[in-house]
Amino acid sequence: MSILSQRPFDIGANFKRLLPAQPCLLCGANSHDGICCTACDAELPRLTAEHCPVCALPTLAGSLCGECLRQPPPFDHTAAAFSYNFPLDKLVQALKFRDQLVLVDFLADALAERVTTHPDRLLALPLHATRLRERGFNQSLLLARRLSRRLGIPLLPDACERVRNTPPQSSLPWKERDKNMRQAFVCKPDADIRGKHVAIVDDVMTTGASIGELARALKQAGASEVSAWVIARTLPHDR
Fold first, then answer.
1. Which positions ≥6 away from 166 have C-beta within 8 Å?
2. pLDDT tens-digit map of 25-34
3. What CATH number does domain 45-238 carry, 2.120.10, 3.40.1350, 3.40.50, 3.30.310?
């Protein structure tokens, strides 16, 4: 029998099977494929349907949605890796509230695969100093650092700050979220954003109020274009 008819010897796959397995973070089964086993990874709600290029909500043929046509948000584009559904929501919550920092690279790499244009600078959605002391880290900044290294885009860790310690957006009705975020951010005079395309990195977008308010501050400071990069987008039926 010709060796051409035999299955190639996959050195990488065989070597991976020799390494110690780790428990899948979602189901607990042994995984040789990273923090999520193959089965659980396949079940993650990746945002694959056609969606509005500005806000990432589902639309026919990827056209602009009615809301973005009627009242365009301050940001110009959105890239999202997942919809905010089970079990992805549990991974995001584990990162934010249970210090599962091992998830940073996994989630950031999934977002990197959805990026189609490279901005000039990356910026993480800032936490207020009080919230940062309580949590101990800014998950958006950790995600942005990974994206910066992987994609080779400069990160601006201190260009903007959150000057109002607002209640968590998730604790408010939708109609109050825009009001809650008004004038919550300021950009520093020496921030390297004038004339630049800046991407804001965050974990979840629901109404877009937080990213929208930061995008407004960035454009007032001279940014020419602002994109929103989020791990997950909350879809209308999930709100």
1. 128, 180, 181, 184
2. 888 888 877 8
3. 3.40.50
